[in-house]
Amino acid sequence: MCAGGWALNPFKRHRVMIHSFIQALRDLLGESHVLLGTDCAGFETDWRKRYQGKALAVALPHSTEQVAAIVALCAQYEVSIVPQGGHTGLVGGGTPNATGQQLVLNLTRLNRIRSIDPENLCITAEAGCILQTVQDAARAAGLHFPLSLAAEGSCTIGGNLATNAGGTQVLRFGNARDLCLGLEVVTPQGEIVQALKALRKDNTGYDLRHLYIGSEGTLGIITAATLKLSPQPAATVCALALCTSMQQCVDLLHFSRQNLHSTLTGFEVMNHTARRLVQQHFAQIAQPFRLSTQPQSDDWAVLIELSDEESQAHAEARLEALLSSALDRNLIDDAVLASSMAQVKNLWHLRESIPLAQAVEGLNIKHDIALPISQIAAFVEQMKVEIEQHCPGARLVTFGHLGDGNLHYNVQAPVGVAAAEFLTQFEPRINRLVYDAVTQRQGTISAEHGIGQLKRQELAQYANPVALSVMKKIKAALDPQGIMNPGRVLTND
Ligand code: FAD
């Protein structure tokens, strides 16, 4: 369609083509589900406000067939597509670029729970279902969907799978990939791969599910998924412990694993600076441990969660015994056990408010890294020295899922320095320091947030060259026109 045959100059031809594309979209979805101009504003800026794009239009389909028809139309007109769910991603993957040429395909109207099968312990949900809606539907059926993250009130199942999201229960239940049994996907040609299987075993050729999970919308559009459920635990209890070093946190993790086995469902760390930021911006959130007046104090709070199959009393007794033995062994300096649901919620609120407090404080240099757990304490010590040498006064806001070896290792401007100026001056240098150290210690530059726009240069630099070349071949084979989320994950060269 976009090939020759137009008796117009290229500029006019382009405008006529775009006009005809938009008209075809409107015919397909109805006018109110194709947003144009200023109506697109809410879909053009990412959660962190780091990327500001301009969309050609925003399409809001309601069914898999509509998604397939939109993609076929885009292939015909060679319009590139940015799939978008809740737009809570932290690496700019769901934000259009600034050209005004990309179609945002937002999936939030594709939001039905198609079925729940308690005997087979699974749920089939459309891609635009909000994560919390899936958790609630599972709970209403007496079951548990364990994927859990601070953005669960607005992120979608499609986005969770496209980024292979992690969150706070990976330690026990795995990440989004581990929770997915089957997928329905629209290919870049507008065909539908119907593979919503609910099987625990299926060795029939290449497992395409694992290709699409974590591909960040660059290989196809996830329209529905069949997800694993678990029996609901009888009780969940939490405690907050205070450690004086990262090595102590690692030792406590080892001790907790040995004692709690699979009942250990969460193990989160928060450094002193992270908790101070929460205190500064959300003073209403209770802080069980008094914060030092020293800006870079070295203590760490550890949130431990235990899920028990027996009873609340049994769960509390087990966690209390763990904390008491840990105190005796000098693995912790202090601890509080949450004694009510309100206290449990407050502890999680403290942990989950760190990204929000950082967002209020201003842009920071974000790293979502994972390391072998045995390397984490040495990494933290090394970085503290090197970052202070390169940027005196920079604030290390370190928190995350230590149970998975995953730290959000963020570097905030020194007090009084403007965030934009700090990023311009220090981001490349600090990224280099952090990613070099992570790579030397056999870690990864992206544990759970993905690559998006933010880390595509780093992926090109740090990935194994053969692995990178295989990724490029897969992309070229599945999306030869390059219309699926171009410039995300892989660089365009
Ligand atoms: P979007 O942001 O809309 O999109 C993310 C990427 O997936 C984009 O590349 C987009 O193109 C693609 N995409 C979206 N939907 C589809 C689809 N249906 N088919 C194909 N591609 C698609 N992440 C974690 O892993 N763990 C955490 O603990 C965590 N905590 C967070 C806390 C906060 C406060 C915030 C704001 C974010 C957090 N995140 C976390 C990041 C984010 O919430 C997750 O990446 C989430 O999975 C993104 O879902 P979404 O629906 O918002 O996707």
Description:
- The chain is α+β, with helices and mostly antiparallel strands.
- The chain has 15 helices and 18 strands.
- The protein has a 7-stranded antiparallel sheet, sandwiched between helices.
- A hairpin with a 4-residue loop joins β17 and β18.
- α1 runs antiparallel to α2 and α12 crosses α13.
- It starts with 9 loop residues before the first helix and ends in a 15-residue tail after the last helix.
- The N terminus is likely disordered.
- Flavin-adenine dinucleotide binds next to β3, α4 and β10.
Question: How would you sum up this structure in a few lines?
Answer:
The chain is of the alpha+beta class. Helices cover 37% and strands 19% of the residues.
Keywords for this structure?
single chain; 493 residues; alpha+beta; 5-stranded antiparallel β-sheet; 18 strands; 37% helix; 19% strand; globular; binds flavin-adenine dinucleotide
Sequence of strands across the biggest β-sheet: 15-12-14-13-17-18-16
- The share of residues in helices is 25-40%
Morphology: globular
Radius of gyration: 24 Å
| Secondary structure category | alpha+beta
Strand percentage, roughly?
15-25%
Please tally the β strands and state the result: 18
- The helix tally amounts to 15
Which ions and ligands are bound to the chains? flavin-adenine dinucleotide
Distance from N terminus to C terminus (CA atoms, Å) equals 26 Å
Q: How are the secondary structure elements laid out?
A:
Layout (H helix, E strand, L loop, with lengths): L9 H20 L4 E2 L19 E5 L4 H14 L3 E4 L17 E5 L6 E5 L4 E5 L4 H10 L2 E2 L12 H6 L7 H4 L6 E7 L5 E4 L12 H5 L8 E8 L1 E2 L3 E9 L2 H15 L3 E8 H10 L18 E9 L3 H17 L5 E4 L3 H12 L1 H8 L6 E3 L2 H18 L4 E7 L4 E7 L6 H22 L15 H7 L2 H14 L15
Parallel strand pairs: 2-4, 3-4
Antiparallel strand pairs: 1-2, 5-6, 6-10, 7-11, 8-9, 8-10, 12-14, 12-15, 13-14, 13-17, 16-18, 17-18
Bound molecules: flavin-adenine dinucleotide.
